[in-house]
Amino acid sequence: KVLTGVDDLQQVKVLEMQVDTRENSLGNFGVYLPNLRELKLNNSLLVSVRDLGTTLSHLHILWMARCGLSDLDGISSCSSLKELYIAYNNISDLSQLTWLDHLEVLDLEGNDIEDINQMQYLGLCCKLSHLTVEGNLICLKPNAESAEEPDYNYRAEIKKLIPHLEYLDKIPASQT
User: Fold this and answer.
1) Cα 123 to Cα 174: distance, rounded to the nearest angstrom
2) Which of 26, 40, 78, 152 is the most buried (most CB within 10 A)?
3) Alpha-carbon distance 44 to 21, whole Å?
4) What is the 3-state secondary structure (H, E, C) of 60-72?
5) CA dist., res. 165 & res. 161, Å (int)
6) Does the keyword DNA damage apply (predicted)?
């Protein structure tokens, strides 16, 4: 109530805060915020997405940039997400995102995605239209083991794996 400035937490639709879950879990704080649609946790310290609990199924937009996240286990409990901003973390495995049926916008800038095949998981997110991956190793080469190839074009490779994508790194995906 102190953070939101309102007594009736039913009214809260947007919340911005910084948290450190190394010492305290947030538990199932979503129970108290049934109408929360946007949650900004940028620059927090989150050990795991699981620390958000399992009661944010009504959330549409989630910001977790620069939170020290290394995996997305538990993101499936945010089943209504339309936009997910997780730039500048340590994420390399995108398999958990396949459960987000409504995902339209995904920002993965500056993470640890080293294998272009991770994009196959995003191909299963049938509503995904805007994707940002700049600052990941896959922009330079298809996987960590391969040498940099002058003919390699990450935009063309991603477009093959996610044919319904409209924008890649803020440029129309059709432009390779």
Assistant:
1) 16
2) 78
3) 8
4) CEEECCCCCCCCC
5) 9
6) no
DSSP-derived pairing of the beta strands 167-168 and 171-172: antiparallel
Spatial separation of the C-alpha atoms in residues 153 and 138, rounded to whole Å = 10
Which pLDDT tens digit goes with each residue over 25-55?
Answer: 787 888 999 999 999 999 999 988 988 888 9
Residues 89 and 63: beta-carbon distance below 8 Å: no
Neighbours of 42 (CB within 10 A): 16
Domain spanning 9-172, CATH architecture: Alpha-Beta Horseshoe (3.80)
Beta strands in the chain (DSSP E): 14-16, 38-40, 61-63, 83-85, 105-107, 130-132, 167-168, 171-172
Question: Which residue carries 């890649």 as its tokens?
Answer: 168
Q: How confident is the model at residue 120 (pLDDT cuts 50, 70, 90)?
A: very high
For the four alpha carbons of 137, 139, 142 and 148, in that order, the dihedral sign comes to negative
The tokens 């009504």 sit on which residue?
58
Q: What is the pLDDT of residue 5?
A: 84
